[in-house]
Amino acid sequence: MNRLANATSPYLQQHATNPVDWWPWGQEAFAEARRRDVPLIISVGYAACHWCHVMAHESFEDDAVAEVMNRNFVSVKVDREERPDVDAVYMTATQAMTGQGGWPMTVFATPDGKPFFCGTYFPRANFLRLLESVTVAWRDQREAVVGQGAAVLEAIGGAQVTGGPAAPLTAELLDAAAERLAREYDPRHGGFGGAPKFPPHLNLLFLLRHHQRTGSARALEIVQHTCEAMARGGIYDQLAGGFARYSVDEHWTVPHFEKMLYDNALLLRVYTQLWRLTGDPLAGRIAAETAAFLVDDLGTAAGGLASALDADTEGVEGATYSWTPAQLVAALGEEDGRWAADLFGVTADGTFEKGTSVLRLARDIDGLAPTVPLATGAREATEPPEVALVARWQRVRDRLREARDRRPQPARDDKVVAAWNGLAVTALVEHAVLTGDPVTAAAARGVAEVLAGRHVVAGRLRRVSRDGRVGEPAGVLDDYGCVAEAFCAVHQLTGEGRWLELAGTLLDAALAHFGAEGGGFYDTADDAERLITRPADPTDNATPSGLSSLAAALVAYAALTGQVRYREAAERALGTVAPIIARHARFAGYAAAVGEALLSGPYEIAIVTDEPGADPLRAAAQRHAPPGAVVVAGAPDQPGVPLLADRSRLGGEPTAYVCRGFVCDRPVTSVEELVAQLTRA
User: End-to-end CA distance of the chain, in Å?
Assistant: First the structure.
């Protein structure tokens, strides 16, 4: 009997027809293992994971493998995105035992959940031998197996970090972190480290804020080079927008093709802020296309944004996205096909598999004249060459997208994850307030309404929903931090007090239920399901850690409300990761970015106006805002909007009030005076 058919997780549903007698995570599975006196197999993955699919096809869909699993084990399937707490505990065990981790993750555990053997992907033959070996060991060497589980539990319990020797986040510490990143930077291809190369979005956000505070040309150069290299590479979808999870090479050419919501949300913030600070047209285009990708390709019918697009199409990785020169000619005709092959770096030898290539942008398009739609061939002949080139590029892109849309498409994991949707809301708001795009603004608000109306239950957060139905898993710390920061952003977008009230409710719950001694935080609440250890990872990786995301929300909320205790909580939390920032800056990017906001002030900017959407003072404030600044615009004394309280118009004119660390400058009414206050050294 397979029990996954009614799961909210698409990943679990992918395994609902396996011959393996899968159980979802829960006490029922543990009780069954105790009743039968057999070990657990805890198999952890996610819907867009390529090697998870491979192991499923090779082993979990195989009757012979399933027979061994069903006879000798209780098998538990876990979606790491739905249960990041379970994933964190067993990933720590896997890394402790093997020195590495990844998905699929395969854990053999005692009936009470203590892991005694861990690994990742196993080919079918190896997996069958492992199943037999573990079965024999459980039968004949039980004492040694149980002892191994106890030793692993002791090791991973000691590895949980809830706070270190606290130290303040000083300017000197953050300056040193930026210098360390500069030493680890790849000056040839951009980014950090070698293959596989992941988009370093959190480090780029930190470096942008560092540049803004210090004027560091080096920090800005690293961001610009990395962003251009990624945007021109195969990791970026040159036809439809959106970034893949990572590049398998060091030069961003061939991606691992899954597209994750969190990567694209964070990269939207990076490209938006780079465009804001430099006016770079490539950054502006990529930001706009990434925002459109979030809304158009990841929007769900029930509201909210889907988690991911799969790496595979009908079991073949990258089949939707790769091209040969002949395929380009078939889609575009001989002349445009050869032109597109040159523009997108498609060669006869190929850059991917079986002579296919992933599209890259090998020519400069964004530095040319703005796109002008062409109506007739005669008009094309009279256009300046650069305008005609841009128009041709746009036309070719559209036709290739239409041809690609006729191919089989990758599956979509359409569950809504609270934290990742929170990241997307913040990114969409930042883009909307700078561009004035009503579509992006409406999308940000719509996703926020889903989070507020579906995921906030009795003042607490639920981690996931799907098809309009909220799941049972409780929110973890990054859900609270990312969603609270998003609600603070929507408060600034709309000027509505209820969003700030909602943010405060979540922050109070997080402070009450997740806090640890010394100012740090656990990743699970004190009243959450008890696991074999209580996870607490303060490092930033593919997403901000729970600690750094909560610190960001606390800083924003303190600036918007004037309540100092929330800022103090953020400072204490960041103090516990100061040693990580000092020694391992690449794994503390968002914490360092929040530290830059604290050093900056952050600024609190109130624009008193009857037309917040069109007021030039608000536009100037958004354009020149220092790192981490909050900006609220609207009529004075609106309920639930503390920054507008007791603020009047000078001489009846729209008026800007700029404060820093709760200390205010004189109010001003001109854009020039406001910009001077925001850009002073």
Answer: 68
Q: Which of 430, 494, 431, 481 is nearest to 451 (CA)?
A: 481
* Tokens found for residue 646: 């007791």
Return the SS3 of 290: helix
∠ CA 240-243-246, rounded to 5°: 145
pLDDT digits (tens, 9 = 90+) for 463-500: 999 999 999 999 999 999 999 999 999 999 999 999 99
Q: For the purposes of burial, counting CB atoms within 10 Å of the CB of 481, is it exposed (0-12), middle (13-18) or buried (19 or more)?
A: buried
* Cis ω for the linkage preceding 602 (within 30 of 0): yes
- Ramachandran region, residue 649 (left: φ > 0; alpha: ψ -120 to 50; beta: rest): beta
pTM: 0.92
CA distance 110 to 458: 35
Q: Tell me how far apart the alpha carbons of residues 115 and 108 are, in angstroms, rounded to a whole number.
A: 6
Beta strands 115-119 and 105-109: pairing type?
Answer: antiparallel
Closest CA to 265 of 32, 10, 28, 482: 482
Asked whether the beta carbons of 272 and 293 are under 8 A apart, the reply is: no
If one counts every other C-beta atom within 10 angstroms of the C-beta of residue 652, the result is 8
Closest CA to 250 of 185, 206, 312: 185
Give 59's DSSP letter: I
Higher pLDDT, 337 or 380: 337
What Å distances lie between residue 344 and 258, 318, 395, CA to CA? 20, 16, 14
> Burial level of 71, CB count in 10 A (0-12/13-18/19+)?
exposed
Q: DSSP states of 531-566 as a string?
A: -SS-------SSS--HHHHHHHHHHHHHHHH--HHH
How far is Cα of residue 484 from the mean position of the Cα atoms in its chain? 15
- Ramachandran angles phi, psi of 310, nearest 5°: -65, 155
Q: What is the pLDDT of residues 647-678, one digit of tens each?
A: 999 999 999 999 997 788 999 999 999 999 99
One-letter amino acid at 279 equals: G
- The sign of the torsion formed by the CA atoms of 8, 11, 17, 21 equals negative
- The whole-angstrom separation of Cα 542 and Cα 46 is 15
CB-neighbour burial class of residue 396 (10 A; exposed 0-12, middle 13-18, buried 19+): buried
State the DSSP H helix or E strand holding residue 69, giving kind and residue range, or none if neither.
Answer: helix 63-72
CA–CA separation, 514 and 185 (whole Å): 35
Evaluate whether 106 touches 118 at the Cβ level (below 8 Å): yes
Q: What are the phi and psi torsion angles at 322 (to 5°)? A: -95, 155
- DSSP assignment, residue 587? G
